[in-house]
Protein backbone atom coordinates (compact mmCIF):
# COMPACT_ATOMS: atom_id res chain seq x y z
CA UNK A 1 0.00 0.00 0.00
CA UNK A 2 1.02 3.62 -0.33
CA UNK A 3 1.17 4.15 3.41
CA UNK A 4 3.46 1.19 3.96
CA UNK A 5 5.66 2.14 1.05
CA UNK A 6 5.91 5.73 2.22
CA UNK A 7 6.92 4.67 5.70
CA UNK A 8 9.85 2.88 4.12
CA UNK A 9 10.71 5.83 1.90
CA UNK A 10 9.76 3.98 -1.28
CA UNK A 11 6.69 5.95 -2.36
CA UNK A 12 7.39 8.75 -4.88
CA UNK A 13 3.80 10.06 -4.74
CA UNK A 14 2.73 12.86 -2.36
CA UNK A 15 0.81 11.84 0.74
CA UNK A 16 -2.80 13.02 0.18
CA UNK A 17 -3.14 13.59 3.92
CA UNK A 18 -0.46 16.29 3.76
CA UNK A 19 -1.87 18.03 0.66
CA UNK A 20 -4.30 20.94 0.52
CA UNK A 21 -7.65 20.42 -1.20
CA UNK A 22 -6.59 22.31 -4.39
CA UNK A 23 -3.48 20.15 -4.54
CA UNK A 24 -5.61 17.01 -4.18
CA UNK A 25 -7.92 18.17 -6.97
CA UNK A 26 -4.93 18.95 -9.21
CA UNK A 27 -3.22 15.62 -8.52
CA UNK A 28 -6.48 13.73 -9.05
CA UNK A 29 -6.95 15.38 -12.44
CA UNK A 30 -3.36 14.63 -13.40
CA UNK A 31 -3.52 10.98 -12.33
CA UNK A 32 -6.86 10.51 -14.09
CA UNK A 33 -5.31 11.90 -17.27
CA UNK A 34 -2.48 9.39 -16.94
CA UNK A 35 -4.97 6.54 -16.44
CA UNK A 36 -6.93 7.79 -19.45
CA UNK A 37 -3.78 7.64 -21.57
CA UNK A 38 -2.96 4.22 -20.13
CA UNK A 39 -6.40 2.91 -21.12
CA UNK A 40 -5.90 4.31 -24.62
CA UNK A 41 -2.49 2.65 -24.88
CA UNK A 42 -4.00 -0.70 -23.92
CA UNK A 43 -6.80 -0.23 -26.43
CA UNK A 44 -4.55 1.01 -29.25
CA UNK A 45 -2.00 -1.74 -28.68
CA UNK A 46 -4.56 -4.52 -28.69
CA UNK A 47 -6.26 -3.10 -31.79
CA UNK A 48 -2.90 -3.01 -33.56
CA UNK A 49 -2.67 -6.75 -32.99
CA UNK A 50 -5.84 -7.06 -35.07
CA UNK A 51 -3.54 -6.28 -38.01
CA UNK A 52 -1.45 -9.38 -37.28
CA UNK A 53 -3.37 -12.33 -38.79
CA UNK A 54 -2.09 -15.03 -36.43
CA UNK A 55 -3.04 -12.98 -33.36
CA UNK A 56 -6.18 -11.28 -34.69
CA UNK A 57 -8.85 -13.93 -33.88
CA UNK A 58 -7.82 -14.42 -30.24
CA UNK A 59 -7.19 -10.68 -29.79
CA UNK A 60 -10.62 -9.74 -31.09
CA UNK A 61 -12.51 -12.38 -29.15
CA UNK A 62 -10.54 -12.71 -25.89
CA UNK A 63 -7.79 -10.11 -25.39
CA UNK A 64 -9.84 -6.99 -26.16
CA UNK A 65 -12.59 -7.76 -23.61
CA UNK A 66 -10.02 -8.54 -20.89
CA UNK A 67 -7.87 -5.46 -21.50
CA UNK A 68 -10.98 -3.29 -21.55
CA UNK A 69 -11.72 -4.41 -17.98
CA UNK A 70 -8.14 -4.18 -16.70
CA UNK A 71 -8.17 -0.47 -15.60
CA UNK A 72 -11.37 -0.92 -13.58
CA UNK A 73 -10.19 -4.26 -12.19
CA UNK A 74 -6.89 -2.81 -11.02
CA UNK A 75 -8.68 0.17 -9.45
CA UNK A 76 -10.92 -2.23 -7.50
CA UNK A 77 -7.91 -4.33 -6.49
CA UNK A 78 -5.85 -1.47 -5.10
CA UNK A 79 -8.82 0.00 -3.26
CA UNK A 80 -8.85 -3.08 -1.04
CA UNK A 81 -5.13 -3.62 -0.43
CA UNK A 82 -4.35 -0.74 1.92
CA UNK A 83 -4.45 -0.73 5.74
CA UNK A 84 -7.86 1.02 5.64
CA UNK A 85 -9.32 -1.42 3.12
CA UNK A 86 -12.83 -1.34 4.60
CA UNK A 87 -12.98 2.43 4.18
CA UNK A 88 -11.13 2.79 0.87
CA UNK A 89 -12.89 -0.02 -0.94
CA UNK A 90 -15.84 2.32 -1.45
CA UNK A 91 -13.62 3.94 -4.10
CA UNK A 92 -13.43 0.59 -5.87
CA UNK A 93 -17.19 0.18 -5.58
CA UNK A 94 -17.67 3.61 -7.12
CA UNK A 95 -15.30 2.75 -9.96
CA UNK A 96 -17.09 -0.54 -10.61
CA UNK A 97 -20.61 0.90 -10.39
CA UNK A 98 -19.69 4.07 -12.30
CA UNK A 99 -17.98 2.12 -15.06
CA UNK A 100 -20.83 -0.34 -15.51
CA UNK A 101 -23.61 2.24 -15.43
CA UNK A 102 -21.75 4.84 -17.47
CA UNK A 103 -20.97 2.32 -20.23
CA UNK A 104 -24.60 1.24 -20.43
CA UNK A 105 -25.99 4.78 -20.55
CA UNK A 106 -23.81 7.57 -21.95
CA UNK A 107 -22.12 5.66 -24.84
CA UNK A 108 -25.40 3.84 -25.51
CA UNK A 109 -27.21 7.15 -25.96
CA UNK A 110 -24.36 8.45 -28.13
CA UNK A 111 -24.64 5.33 -30.30
CA UNK A 112 -28.40 5.79 -30.72
CA UNK A 113 -28.02 9.48 -31.61
CA UNK A 114 -25.14 8.91 -34.03
CA UNK A 115 -26.60 5.80 -35.67
CA UNK A 116 -30.27 6.74 -35.88
CA UNK A 117 -32.12 6.54 -39.19
CA UNK A 118 -35.66 7.31 -40.21
CA UNK A 119 -38.25 4.86 -38.84
CA UNK A 120 -41.03 3.67 -41.15
CA UNK A 121 -43.85 1.56 -39.73
CA UNK A 122 -41.75 0.99 -36.61
CA UNK A 123 -38.72 -0.32 -38.52
CA UNK A 124 -35.45 1.51 -39.28
CA UNK A 125 -34.90 2.20 -43.00
CA UNK A 126 -31.34 1.02 -43.53
CA UNK A 127 -32.13 0.16 -47.17
CA UNK A 128 -33.58 2.51 -49.76
CA UNK A 129 -37.26 1.75 -50.46
CA UNK A 130 -38.05 0.74 -54.01
CA UNK A 131 -40.26 3.80 -54.54
CA UNK A 132 -37.70 6.29 -53.18
CA UNK A 133 -35.75 8.67 -55.41
CA UNK A 134 -32.12 7.40 -55.35
CA UNK A 135 -30.75 10.91 -55.95
CA UNK A 136 -32.37 12.46 -52.88
CA UNK A 137 -33.05 9.58 -50.46
CA UNK A 138 -31.09 9.57 -47.18
CA UNK A 139 -31.14 7.10 -44.32
CA UNK A 140 -31.91 9.95 -41.94
CA UNK A 141 -34.53 12.30 -43.31
CA UNK A 142 -33.33 15.84 -42.45
CA UNK A 143 -36.90 16.91 -41.76
CA UNK A 144 -37.32 14.21 -39.12
CA UNK A 145 -33.77 14.12 -37.72
CA UNK A 146 -34.85 15.51 -34.33
CA UNK A 147 -37.99 13.43 -34.00
CA UNK A 148 -37.99 11.34 -30.83
CA UNK A 149 -40.36 8.72 -32.23
CA UNK A 150 -39.74 8.74 -36.00
CA UNK A 151 -36.01 8.06 -35.84
CA UNK A 152 -34.18 5.16 -34.23
CA UNK A 153 -31.94 2.15 -34.66
CA UNK A 154 -32.12 -1.58 -35.23
CA UNK A 155 -29.75 -4.31 -34.06
CA UNK A 156 -29.12 -8.01 -34.54
CA UNK A 157 -30.15 -10.96 -32.40
CA UNK A 158 -26.71 -11.06 -30.76
CA UNK A 159 -27.72 -7.98 -28.72
CA UNK A 160 -30.56 -9.98 -27.21
CA UNK A 161 -28.22 -12.87 -26.44
CA UNK A 162 -25.70 -10.53 -24.82
CA UNK A 163 -28.49 -8.88 -22.87
CA UNK A 164 -29.54 -12.24 -21.44
CA UNK A 165 -25.94 -13.04 -20.54
CA UNK A 166 -25.54 -9.63 -18.90
CA UNK A 167 -28.54 -10.35 -16.69
CA UNK A 168 -27.24 -13.84 -15.95
CA UNK A 169 -23.89 -12.51 -14.77
CA UNK A 170 -25.68 -10.50 -12.05
CA UNK A 171 -25.79 -13.75 -10.06
CA UNK A 172 -22.61 -12.84 -8.18
CA UNK A 173 -24.27 -9.66 -6.89
CA UNK A 174 -27.36 -11.56 -5.77
CA UNK A 175 -25.27 -14.12 -3.86
CA UNK A 176 -23.30 -11.63 -1.78
CA UNK A 177 -26.14 -9.12 -1.44
CA UNK A 178 -28.57 -11.78 -0.28
CA UNK A 179 -26.18 -12.72 2.52
CA UNK A 180 -25.62 -9.06 3.43
CA UNK A 181 -29.34 -8.34 3.78
CA UNK A 182 -29.80 -11.23 6.22
CA UNK A 183 -26.75 -10.36 8.35
CA UNK A 184 -26.70 -6.56 8.39
CA UNK A 185 -29.03 -5.59 11.24
CA UNK A 186 -26.97 -2.88 12.94
CA UNK A 187 -27.38 0.85 13.24
CA UNK A 188 -25.16 3.00 11.07
CA UNK A 189 -22.24 3.39 11.28
CA UNK A 190 -21.34 -0.12 12.49
CA UNK A 191 -18.59 -0.65 15.06
CA UNK A 192 -15.41 -2.58 14.21
CA UNK A 193 -16.73 -5.61 16.12
CA UNK A 194 -19.97 -5.50 14.20
CA UNK A 195 -18.07 -5.28 10.90
CA UNK A 196 -15.96 -8.24 11.94
CA UNK A 197 -19.07 -10.26 12.74
CA UNK A 198 -20.66 -9.34 9.40
CA UNK A 199 -17.54 -10.28 7.44
CA UNK A 200 -17.36 -13.68 9.16
CA UNK A 201 -20.95 -14.46 8.13
CA UNK A 202 -20.59 -13.08 4.60
CA UNK A 203 -17.20 -14.64 3.87
CA UNK A 204 -18.53 -18.07 2.69
CA UNK A 205 -20.97 -16.33 0.35
CA UNK A 206 -18.18 -14.12 -0.98
CA UNK A 207 -16.20 -17.26 -1.80
CA UNK A 208 -19.17 -18.84 -3.59
CA UNK A 209 -19.72 -15.58 -5.48
CA UNK A 210 -16.03 -15.53 -6.44
CA UNK A 211 -16.29 -19.05 -7.91
CA UNK A 212 -19.45 -18.06 -9.79
CA UNK A 213 -17.75 -14.95 -11.21
CA UNK A 214 -14.74 -16.98 -12.34
CA UNK A 215 -17.01 -19.47 -14.10
CA UNK A 216 -18.96 -16.64 -15.73
CA UNK A 217 -15.72 -15.03 -16.87
CA UNK A 218 -14.41 -18.23 -18.47
CA UNK A 219 -17.78 -19.01 -20.04
CA UNK A 220 -18.06 -15.52 -21.54
CA UNK A 221 -14.61 -15.79 -23.11
CA UNK A 222 -15.58 -19.21 -24.47
CA UNK A 223 -18.73 -17.72 -25.99
CA UNK A 224 -16.73 -14.87 -27.52
CA UNK A 225 -14.28 -17.33 -29.03
CA UNK A 226 -17.10 -19.48 -30.38
CA UNK A 227 -18.84 -16.49 -31.95
CA UNK A 228 -15.56 -15.43 -33.52
CA UNK A 229 -15.34 -18.80 -35.25
CA UNK A 230 -18.97 -18.93 -36.39
CA UNK A 231 -20.78 -15.69 -37.09
CA UNK A 232 -17.93 -13.63 -38.55
CA UNK A 233 -18.34 -10.73 -36.10
CA UNK A 234 -14.67 -10.78 -35.18
CA UNK A 235 -13.73 -11.12 -38.87
CA UNK A 236 -15.58 -7.88 -39.53
CA UNK A 237 -13.76 -6.20 -36.66
CA UNK A 238 -10.41 -7.43 -37.99
CA UNK A 239 -11.25 -6.31 -41.51
CA UNK A 240 -12.29 -2.88 -40.28
CA UNK A 241 -9.01 -2.51 -38.35
CA UNK A 242 -6.99 -3.43 -41.44
CA UNK A 243 -8.94 -1.06 -43.68
CA UNK A 244 -8.41 1.80 -41.23
CA UNK A 245 -4.69 0.99 -40.97
CA UNK A 246 -4.31 0.95 -44.75
CA UNK A 247 -6.17 4.22 -45.10
CA UNK A 248 -4.07 5.72 -42.33
CA UNK A 249 -0.80 4.74 -44.00
CA UNK A 250 0.24 2.30 -41.28
CA UNK A 251 -0.03 -0.71 -43.56
CA UNK A 252 0.18 -1.58 -47.26
CA UNK A 253 -1.98 -4.13 -48.99
CA UNK A 254 0.94 -6.54 -49.11
CA UNK A 255 1.59 -5.93 -45.45
CA UNK A 256 -1.99 -7.01 -44.70
CA UNK A 257 -1.35 -10.17 -46.75
CA UNK A 258 2.09 -10.92 -45.32
CA UNK A 259 1.02 -14.18 -43.70
CA UNK A 260 -0.47 -15.51 -46.93
CA UNK A 261 2.68 -14.90 -48.94
CA UNK A 262 4.56 -17.69 -47.21
CA UNK A 263 1.81 -20.26 -47.36
CA UNK A 264 1.73 -23.22 -49.66
CA UNK A 265 -1.15 -21.94 -51.77
CA UNK A 266 1.02 -19.09 -53.04
CA UNK A 267 3.37 -21.68 -54.51
CA UNK A 268 0.37 -23.46 -56.03
CA UNK A 269 -0.65 -20.23 -57.69
CA UNK A 270 2.91 -19.85 -58.95
CA UNK A 271 2.38 -23.09 -60.84
CA UNK A 272 -0.92 -21.84 -62.24
CA UNK A 273 -2.99 -24.44 -60.39
CA UNK A 274 -5.71 -21.96 -59.47
CA UNK A 275 -8.53 -24.51 -59.43
CA UNK A 276 -6.77 -26.56 -56.77
CA UNK A 277 -6.25 -23.42 -54.74
CA UNK A 278 -9.89 -22.38 -54.89
CA UNK A 279 -11.03 -25.83 -53.74
CA UNK A 280 -8.88 -25.54 -50.63
CA UNK A 281 -10.91 -24.32 -47.61
CA UNK A 282 -8.07 -22.36 -46.00
CA UNK A 283 -7.33 -20.63 -49.29
CA UNK A 284 -10.95 -19.65 -49.75
CA UNK A 285 -10.99 -18.23 -46.22
CA UNK A 286 -8.06 -16.02 -47.21
CA UNK A 287 -9.86 -14.95 -50.40
CA UNK A 288 -12.92 -13.99 -48.36
CA UNK A 289 -10.72 -12.08 -45.94
CA UNK A 290 -9.18 -10.07 -48.77
CA UNK A 291 -12.63 -9.36 -50.20
CA UNK A 292 -13.52 -7.77 -46.86
CA UNK A 293 -10.35 -5.67 -46.98
CA UNK A 294 -10.81 -4.50 -50.57
CA UNK A 295 -14.58 -4.02 -50.73
CA UNK A 296 -14.59 -0.54 -49.07
CA UNK A 297 -11.93 0.75 -51.48
CA UNK A 298 -13.77 -0.62 -54.53
CA UNK A 299 -17.12 0.76 -53.35
CA UNK A 300 -15.61 4.21 -52.89
CA UNK A 301 -15.08 4.53 -56.65
CA UNK A 302 -18.00 2.40 -57.86
CA UNK A 303 -20.30 5.36 -57.42
CA UNK A 304 -23.10 4.18 -59.70
CA UNK A 305 -23.16 0.69 -58.19
CA UNK A 306 -22.65 -1.20 -61.46
CA UNK A 307 -19.78 -3.29 -60.00
CA UNK A 308 -17.28 -1.82 -62.50
CA UNK A 309 -14.27 0.50 -62.27
CA UNK A 310 -12.09 1.89 -65.06
CA UNK A 311 -8.31 2.25 -65.25
CA UNK A 312 -8.12 5.71 -63.68
CA UNK A 313 -10.24 4.56 -60.73
CA UNK A 314 -8.04 1.47 -60.45
CA UNK A 315 -4.96 3.71 -60.21
CA UNK A 316 -6.57 5.70 -57.41
CA UNK A 317 -7.33 2.52 -55.47
CA UNK A 318 -3.72 1.37 -55.77
CA UNK A 319 -2.65 4.66 -54.24
CA UNK A 320 -5.28 4.31 -51.49
CA UNK A 321 -3.91 0.88 -50.49
CA UNK A 322 -0.38 2.32 -50.38
CA UNK A 323 0.90 0.36 -53.38
CA UNK A 324 2.90 2.78 -55.53
CA UNK A 325 3.72 1.64 -59.06
CA UNK A 326 4.77 3.26 -62.35
CA UNK A 327 1.83 3.94 -64.64
CA UNK A 328 2.95 1.24 -67.09
CA UNK A 329 3.03 -1.38 -64.33
CA UNK A 330 -0.45 -0.27 -63.26
CA UNK A 331 -1.66 -0.64 -66.84
CA UNK A 332 -0.23 -4.15 -67.13
CA UNK A 333 -2.05 -5.17 -63.94
CA UNK A 334 -5.31 -3.68 -65.14
CA UNK A 335 -5.02 -5.19 -68.62
CA UNK A 336 -4.37 -8.65 -67.17
CA UNK A 337 -7.52 -8.37 -65.05
CA UNK A 338 -9.65 -6.94 -67.87
CA UNK A 339 -10.12 -10.34 -69.53
CA UNK A 340 -12.88 -9.16 -71.92
CA UNK A 341 -11.04 -5.95 -73.00
CA UNK A 342 -14.05 -3.86 -71.96
CA UNK A 343 -11.96 -1.12 -70.40
CA UNK A 344 -13.34 -1.86 -66.95
CA UNK A 345 -13.09 -4.62 -64.36
CA UNK A 346 -15.60 -5.96 -61.87
CA UNK A 347 -15.02 -6.65 -58.19
CA UNK A 348 -14.07 -10.30 -58.67
CA UNK A 349 -11.47 -9.40 -61.31
CA UNK A 350 -10.25 -6.57 -59.10
CA UNK A 351 -9.71 -8.88 -56.10
CA UNK A 352 -7.96 -11.52 -58.21
CA UNK A 353 -5.73 -8.86 -59.72
CA UNK A 354 -4.61 -7.32 -56.43
CA UNK A 355 -4.15 -10.67 -54.72
CA UNK A 356 -2.01 -11.75 -57.67
CA UNK A 357 0.06 -8.60 -57.38
CA UNK A 358 0.43 -8.89 -53.59
CA UNK A 359 1.52 -12.53 -53.73
CA UNK A 360 4.05 -12.08 -56.51
CA UNK A 361 7.58 -12.21 -55.01
CA UNK A 362 8.73 -9.95 -57.86
CA UNK A 363 6.83 -7.12 -56.20
CA UNK A 364 8.70 -7.14 -52.86
CA UNK A 365 9.07 -3.68 -51.45
CA UNK A 366 12.84 -3.54 -51.95
CA UNK A 367 12.54 -4.28 -55.69
CA UNK A 368 9.26 -2.56 -56.41
CA UNK A 369 10.68 0.68 -57.72
CA UNK A 370 13.13 -1.21 -59.94
CA UNK A 371 10.84 -3.95 -61.23
CA UNK A 372 7.67 -1.92 -61.22
CA UNK A 373 5.24 -4.49 -62.59
CA UNK A 374 3.50 -7.59 -61.31
CA UNK A 375 2.47 -10.65 -63.30
CA UNK A 376 -1.16 -11.32 -62.45
CA UNK A 377 -1.94 -13.48 -65.50
CA UNK A 378 -0.25 -16.48 -63.91
CA UNK A 379 -2.91 -16.31 -61.20
CA UNK A 380 -5.75 -15.79 -63.64
CA UNK A 381 -4.90 -18.21 -66.42
CA UNK A 382 -1.68 -19.94 -65.43
CA UNK A 383 0.57 -18.03 -67.80
CA UNK A 384 2.97 -15.22 -67.10
CA UNK A 385 1.92 -11.83 -68.32
CA UNK A 386 3.58 -10.65 -71.46
CA UNK A 387 5.39 -7.58 -70.31
CA UNK A 388 5.82 -6.47 -73.89
CA UNK A 389 2.07 -6.15 -74.36
CA UNK A 390 0.25 -2.93 -73.80
CA UNK A 391 0.58 0.56 -75.06
CA UNK A 392 3.75 2.51 -74.51
CA UNK A 393 3.28 5.53 -72.30
CA UNK A 394 5.29 8.70 -72.12
CA UNK A 395 5.28 8.47 -68.34
CA UNK A 396 6.18 4.75 -68.20
CA UNK A 397 8.91 5.34 -65.64
CA UNK A 398 6.89 7.80 -63.59
CA UNK A 399 6.42 6.71 -59.99
CA UNK A 400 4.16 7.99 -57.28
CA UNK A 401 5.61 9.55 -54.16
CA UNK A 402 6.06 6.75 -51.64
CA UNK A 403 5.72 7.46 -47.90
CA UNK A 404 9.13 7.06 -46.30
CA UNK A 405 7.81 4.89 -43.48
CA UNK A 406 6.50 2.31 -45.95
CA UNK A 407 8.76 2.61 -48.99
CA UNK A 408 11.68 0.60 -47.65
CA UNK A 409 9.76 -1.95 -45.64
CA UNK A 410 8.94 -5.41 -46.89
CA UNK A 411 5.47 -6.68 -45.93
CA UNK A 412 6.94 -9.08 -43.39
CA UNK A 413 8.87 -6.19 -41.83
CA UNK A 414 5.68 -4.16 -41.60
CA UNK A 415 4.10 -6.98 -39.61
CA UNK A 416 7.13 -7.18 -37.33
CA UNK A 417 7.05 -3.42 -36.66
CA UNK A 418 3.33 -3.55 -35.93
CA UNK A 419 3.84 -6.32 -33.38
CA UNK A 420 6.64 -4.40 -31.66
CA UNK A 421 4.54 -1.25 -31.53
CA UNK A 422 1.49 -3.16 -30.26
CA UNK A 423 3.29 -4.93 -27.41
CA UNK A 424 5.14 -1.73 -26.48
CA UNK A 425 1.88 0.19 -26.17
CA UNK A 426 0.17 -2.58 -24.23
CA UNK A 427 3.13 -2.95 -21.88
CA UNK A 428 3.36 0.80 -21.27
CA UNK A 429 -0.39 1.05 -20.68
CA UNK A 430 -0.42 -1.83 -18.20
CA UNK A 431 2.59 -0.40 -16.36
CA UNK A 432 0.93 3.01 -16.02
CA UNK A 433 -2.29 1.42 -14.73
CA UNK A 434 -0.37 -0.55 -12.11
CA UNK A 435 1.65 2.50 -11.00
CA UNK A 436 -1.08 5.14 -10.87
CA UNK A 437 -4.17 3.21 -9.74
CA UNK A 438 -3.11 3.00 -6.08
CA UNK A 439 -2.31 6.72 -5.60
CA UNK A 440 -5.50 7.62 -7.46
CA UNK A 441 -7.52 5.53 -5.00
CA UNK A 442 -5.84 7.31 -2.08
CA UNK A 443 -6.58 10.73 -3.59
CA UNK A 444 -10.25 9.95 -4.25
CA UNK A 445 -10.63 8.62 -0.71
CA UNK A 446 -8.99 11.70 0.80
CA UNK A 447 -11.05 14.03 -1.40
CA UNK A 448 -14.22 12.39 -0.06
CA UNK A 449 -13.08 12.98 3.53
CA UNK A 450 -12.22 16.65 2.88
CA UNK A 451 -15.53 17.35 1.11
CA UNK A 452 -17.52 15.22 3.57
CA UNK A 453 -18.84 13.20 0.62
CA UNK A 454 -18.72 9.44 0.29
CA UNK A 455 -15.75 8.48 -1.94
CA UNK A 456 -18.24 6.31 -3.81
CA UNK A 457 -19.85 9.34 -5.47
CA UNK A 458 -16.52 10.86 -6.45
CA UNK A 459 -15.11 7.69 -7.94
CA UNK A 460 -18.49 6.93 -9.59
CA UNK A 461 -18.10 10.07 -11.70
CA UNK A 462 -14.33 10.45 -12.13
CA UNK A 463 -12.98 6.90 -12.40
CA UNK A 464 -15.02 5.84 -15.48
CA UNK A 465 -14.05 9.01 -17.33
CA UNK A 466 -10.41 8.03 -16.89
CA UNK A 467 -10.69 4.33 -17.69
CA UNK A 468 -13.60 4.10 -20.14
CA UNK A 469 -13.55 7.30 -22.19
CA UNK A 470 -12.30 5.43 -25.26
CA UNK A 471 -15.57 3.46 -25.33
CA UNK A 472 -17.43 6.72 -25.95
CA UNK A 473 -15.42 7.34 -29.12
CA UNK A 474 -15.65 3.71 -30.25
CA UNK A 475 -19.43 3.64 -29.78
CA UNK A 476 -19.80 6.79 -31.85
CA UNK A 477 -17.46 5.61 -34.63
CA UNK A 478 -19.23 2.29 -35.09
CA UNK A 479 -22.75 3.72 -34.84
CA UNK A 480 -22.09 6.63 -37.22
CA UNK A 481 -21.81 4.17 -40.12
CA UNK A 482 -25.60 3.83 -39.83
CA UNK A 483 -25.89 0.15 -40.66
CA UNK A 484 -27.59 -2.58 -38.66
CA UNK A 485 -24.32 -4.48 -38.42
CA UNK A 486 -22.35 -1.49 -37.13
CA UNK A 487 -25.05 -0.73 -34.55
CA UNK A 488 -24.92 -4.33 -33.40
CA UNK A 489 -21.15 -4.10 -33.03
CA UNK A 490 -21.39 -0.82 -31.12
CA UNK A 491 -24.00 -2.00 -28.60
CA UNK A 492 -22.56 -5.49 -28.16
CA UNK A 493 -19.23 -3.91 -27.17
CA UNK A 494 -20.99 -2.00 -24.39
CA UNK A 495 -22.90 -5.07 -23.20
CA UNK A 496 -19.65 -7.04 -23.26
CA UNK A 497 -18.00 -4.44 -21.05
CA UNK A 498 -20.84 -4.77 -18.54
CA UNK A 499 -20.50 -8.56 -18.57
CA UNK A 500 -16.77 -8.26 -17.89
CA UNK A 501 -17.47 -5.92 -14.97
CA UNK A 502 -20.06 -8.37 -13.59
CA UNK A 503 -17.61 -11.27 -13.77
CA UNK A 504 -13.97 -10.18 -13.90
CA UNK A 505 -14.14 -6.98 -11.81
CA UNK A 506 -16.75 -8.24 -9.36
CA UNK A 507 -14.67 -11.42 -8.97
CA UNK A 508 -11.71 -9.28 -7.87
CA UNK A 509 -13.99 -7.43 -5.46
CA UNK A 510 -15.32 -10.63 -3.90
CA UNK A 511 -11.79 -12.01 -3.62
CA UNK A 512 -10.89 -8.95 -1.55
CA UNK A 513 -13.97 -9.41 0.62
CA UNK A 514 -13.06 -13.05 1.24
CA UNK A 515 -9.29 -12.86 1.68
CA UNK A 516 -9.19 -9.49 3.50
CA UNK A 517 -12.19 -10.32 5.72
CA UNK A 518 -14.15 -7.25 4.63
CA UNK A 519 -17.83 -6.64 5.30
CA UNK A 520 -20.15 -6.07 2.33
CA UNK A 521 -21.45 -2.59 3.15
CA UNK A 522 -22.71 -1.71 -0.31
CA UNK A 523 -26.37 -2.66 -0.48
CA UNK A 524 -27.53 0.63 -2.00
CA UNK A 525 -24.80 0.57 -4.64
CA UNK A 526 -25.53 -3.06 -5.53
CA UNK A 527 -29.26 -2.42 -5.91
CA UNK A 528 -28.51 0.54 -8.17
CA UNK A 529 -26.20 -1.55 -10.41
CA UNK A 530 -28.76 -4.36 -10.66
CA UNK A 531 -31.64 -1.95 -11.33
CA UNK A 532 -29.95 -0.24 -14.29
CA UNK A 533 -28.79 -3.48 -15.88
CA UNK A 534 -32.19 -5.16 -15.48
CA UNK A 535 -33.95 -2.19 -17.09
CA UNK A 536 -31.57 -1.96 -20.06
CA UNK A 537 -31.19 -5.72 -20.45
CA UNK A 538 -34.96 -6.22 -20.46
CA UNK A 539 -35.45 -3.46 -23.05
CA UNK A 540 -33.09 -5.09 -25.57
CA UNK A 541 -34.46 -8.59 -24.96
CA UNK A 542 -38.05 -7.50 -25.65
CA UNK A 543 -37.34 -5.85 -29.01
CA UNK A 544 -34.79 -5.36 -31.78
CA UNK A 545 -35.28 -1.62 -32.32
CA UNK A 546 -34.95 1.50 -30.22
CA UNK A 547 -36.20 4.98 -30.97
CA UNK A 548 -34.33 8.18 -30.21
CA UNK A 549 -36.66 8.61 -27.24
CA UNK A 550 -35.40 5.35 -25.77
CA UNK A 551 -31.77 6.44 -26.18
CA UNK A 552 -32.41 9.64 -24.23
CA UNK A 553 -34.37 7.69 -21.62
CA UNK A 554 -31.42 5.32 -21.18
CA UNK A 555 -29.10 8.30 -20.66
CA UNK A 556 -31.33 9.34 -17.77
CA UNK A 557 -30.43 6.16 -15.90
CA UNK A 558 -26.94 7.59 -15.24
CA UNK A 559 -27.98 10.39 -12.85
CA UNK A 560 -30.91 8.26 -11.68
CA UNK A 561 -28.47 5.60 -10.45
CA UNK A 562 -26.69 8.13 -8.25
CA UNK A 563 -29.99 9.48 -6.95
CA UNK A 564 -31.15 5.94 -6.17
CA UNK A 565 -28.00 5.25 -4.12
CA UNK A 566 -28.51 8.49 -2.17
CA UNK A 567 -32.18 7.68 -1.54
CA UNK A 568 -31.49 4.12 -0.37
CA UNK A 569 -28.70 5.23 1.97
CA UNK A 570 -30.20 8.37 3.45
CA UNK A 571 -33.95 7.70 3.35
CA UNK A 572 -34.34 3.93 3.43
CA UNK A 573 -31.28 3.49 5.66
CA UNK A 574 -29.40 0.83 3.69
CA UNK A 575 -25.62 0.69 3.86
Q: How would you summarize this macromolecular structure in one to three sentences?
A:
With 575 residues, this protein is an all-alpha fold. The chain has helices spanning 2-7, 21-48, 56-79, 85-115, 157-168, 171-183, 192-230, 233-247, 253-256, 258-261, 264-270, 274-278, 281-301, 311-320, 327-337, 347-359, 365-371, 377-380, 404-407, 411-451, 455-467, 469-479, 484-515, 523-541, 548-555, 557-572; strands at 117-120, 123-124, 151-154, 309-310, 344-345, 545-547.
Structure classification: mainly alpha
Number of strands: 6
* Order of strands across the main sheet: 2-1-3-6
Ranges where pLDDT stays below 50 over 5 or more residues in a row are 1-9, 270-275, 365-404
What overall form do the CA principal axes indicate? elongated
In DSSP terms (H or I, runs of 4 or more residues), the helix count works out at 26
Strand content: under 5%
Query: Helix amount, in percent?
Result: 55-70%
Task: Determine the N-to-C terminus distance.
Answer: 26 Å
Gyration radius, rounded = 28 Å
The overall average pLDDT, rounded, is 79
Summarize the biggest pleated sheet. 4 strands, antiparallel
What does this structure look like?
With about 575 residues, the protein is mainly alpha-helical. Helix content is about 70%, strand content about 5%. The chain is built from 26 helices and 6 strands. The strands form 2 sheets. It has a 4-stranded antiparallel beta sheet. The chain has a two-stranded antiparallel sheet with strand order 4-5. The longest helix has about 40 residues. It is elongated, with a radius of gyration of 28 Å. The two termini are about 25 Å apart. About 45% of the residues are buried. The N terminus is likely disordered.
Amino acid sequence: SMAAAESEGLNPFPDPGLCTLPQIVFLTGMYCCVLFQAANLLSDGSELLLLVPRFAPIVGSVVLPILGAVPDGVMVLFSGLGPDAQGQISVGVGALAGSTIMLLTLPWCIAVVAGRVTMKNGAPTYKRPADADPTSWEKLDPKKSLSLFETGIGYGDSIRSSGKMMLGTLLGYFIIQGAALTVDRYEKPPTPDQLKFESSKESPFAFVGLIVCMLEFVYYLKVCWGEAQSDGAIDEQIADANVQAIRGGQLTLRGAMADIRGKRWASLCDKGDLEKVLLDKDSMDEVRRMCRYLAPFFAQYDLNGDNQIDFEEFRMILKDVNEYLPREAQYQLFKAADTDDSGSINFEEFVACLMAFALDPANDAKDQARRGRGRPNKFLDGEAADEGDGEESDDEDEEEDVPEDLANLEPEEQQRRIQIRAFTKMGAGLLLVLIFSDPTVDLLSEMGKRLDISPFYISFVLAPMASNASELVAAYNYASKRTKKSMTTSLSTLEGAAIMNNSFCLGIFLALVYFKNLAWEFSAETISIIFVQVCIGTSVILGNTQKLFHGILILGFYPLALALVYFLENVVGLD
